[in-house]
Amino acid sequence: MLEQNKNKKMKTLKINKLILLLIGLVVFNSCVEDDDFNTPNTSVVEPVLDGSEITIASIAGRLAQEQDNGGTLDYTDEDSVITFDFSATNEYMVGYVISSDEGGNYFEEIILQDKAENPTIGIKVLIDVNPLFIRYEVGRKVFIKLNGLAVGITNGVLTVGALNGNEVDKIPSASENEFILRSAAIATMVPMPLAFADFSDDKTNLLVELQDVQFNRNQATGDNPFSYASEGSDEFDGERTLESCTAASSVIFSTSTFADFKSLTLPSGRGNMTAILTKDFFGETFNIVVNSPEDINFDNAERCDPDFLECTGASGGGAAIYEENFEGFAGYAAEGWTNVNVSGGGTDWIIGNFSGSSYAQISGFNSGDDEINVWLVTPTINMDSSTGEELSFDVQSNFDNGTILSVYVSSDFTGDPATATWQILDASIPTGPSGGFGSFEGVGPINISCIDGDVNFAFFYEGSDPSATTRYHIDNIEVTGN
Q1: Angle 437-268-138 (CA atoms, 0-180°, nearest 5)?
Q2: CATH 2.40.50 location in the chain
Q3: Is it the case that residue 112 has pLDDT exceeding 80?
Q4: Residues with Cβ < 8 Å from 392, sequence gap 6 or more?
Q5: Which CATH architecture has domain 51-186?
């Protein structure tokens, strides 16, 4: 009897479990078929703003008033800051995302510009969140609630974030959703074509297209081309020289040493690039930064390097035909050199000195000259009594914002660089740090064995303030031959 009751209870329990299972399946199926539970809704709902929209330009105008600079925004003034009170009517700045931290080249910041096409101004948003690209993809329209935030100039560009003392700092991660609202709109961003000569402070934080450019031959070609940012000398950023093929100008191309693509080799060709115009850490030098190597389209294998003098004969060895280390130097004119600024500005070569060592020095920094063309020509050197000649010298590149030094030779120079015939030499000018002094590096030896007679060598500085003002020191110039 007990066994019979036990079997009956077990049978009833199994039936009850079966009924519960069937009920669960019915409920689950009805949930799946219900439109409200079909697929999790991940779309962005357009936010309802409890305040007014204002433009980035309007904010920049307020900061300019605070700077008391005659209504013009001073990008060197990092002391002036404007704040937006919590108690005031809410104001929302609107902009479109142009940066992406997916490749690791940006970190805890979003770059916005005012329009998807033909933008007029941009701003950097500091936020203590990483990664950001999942929610704030390129083209996403966003609203920044300004109440409780501050706006100022940091690292030479317009910036918004949390106030920390008298500085603009990162918005805390816990406050992200309070201050940054995503719109449902995602625009197709159209980069603005921009030539190096047109770089200006008010165009920083904008998505630009650089047309017909290439990396410097000493970095992108040869047996050991550079990576984006994994060379031994790369500390926080890898700085490479990007050159224009349509004008004699260059700019620093910067890549973070934390970028996923830092070890990739620089492309050796030429073409177009979509990038963001910004400044270096010190806010002094224009830099170009890409979101990804996919933004670089160098599909033309034919580079625009100059037609260098190519001497194919044997060279090397021998004694010095001419040498100059600038110690006890009496002055350029007194020593038979020609030092002339052919563009008429005030920049010229001087004799610098550090730790008892003298050298030739030039920089266009703070010159105020849009065009700087300065020749430093050696005394005449006779090459008839020697063979296998070579030229070598030392260069220190400092506060580098582009390679703007080149070396030439002429056999018909009579005192005026403008009337002489010059042949450019394949001199690999080293790249220095953008924010300080580099080290002296040897250049050459350069084979000049195919030159005869009386010749003059020239160091030509071609710059523009403030975009191309690299400071150069030249020392230990030597011509040798057998």
Answers
A1: 80
A2: 51-186, 192-300
A3: yes
A4: 442, 443, 444, 445, 446, 476, 477, 478, 480
A5: Beta Barrel (2.40)
Token duo for residue 430: 């080293």
In CATH, 192-300 is 3.30.1330: no
Query: Running DSSP on this structure, what letter comes out for residue 265?
Result: B
Q: What is the DSSP letter of 368?
A: -
The number of angstroms, rounded, from the C-alpha of 465 to the middle of its chain's C-alpha atoms is 17
CA distance 127 to 177: 11
* Token digits of residue 267: 């492309």
Half-sphere exposure of 424 (CA within 13 A, CB side): 12
pLDDT of residue 42: 55
Written out in words, the top-level CATH class of the domain with range 319-481 is mainly beta
Query: Both tokens of residue 298?
Result: 């160098």
User: Is the alpha carbon torsion for 32, 33, 35, 38 positive or negative?
Assistant: positive
Cα gap 413→321, rounded to integer Å: 19
Tell me the HSE value of 126 on the side-chain side, using a 13 A CA sphere.
21
Asked if 134 and 93 touch (Cβ cutoff 8 Å), the reply is no
What's the pLDDT tens digit per position in 15-24? Answer: 444 444 444 4
CA 297 from chain centre, in angstroms, equals 17
Closest-CA residue to 403 (of 342, 450, 462): 462
Where in the sequence of the chain do the CATH 2.60.120.200 domains occur? 319-481
| 140: Cα separation from own chain's centroid | 23
Classify strands 157-164 and 122-126 as parallel, antiparallel or unpaired. parallel
DSSP 84-109: --TTSPPEEEEEEE----TTSSS-SE
CA 223 to chain centroid, in Å, comes to 25
The pLDDT of residue 36 is above 50: no
Beta-strand (E) ranges in 15-134?
A: 52-54, 81-83, 91-97, 109-113, 122-126
Whether residue 445 is preceded by a cis peptide bond, meaning omega within 30 degrees of 0, is yes
Q: How buried is 160 (Cβ within 10 angstroms: 0-12 exposed, 13-18 middle, 19+ buried)?
A: buried
Percent of the chain with pLDDT over 70: 91
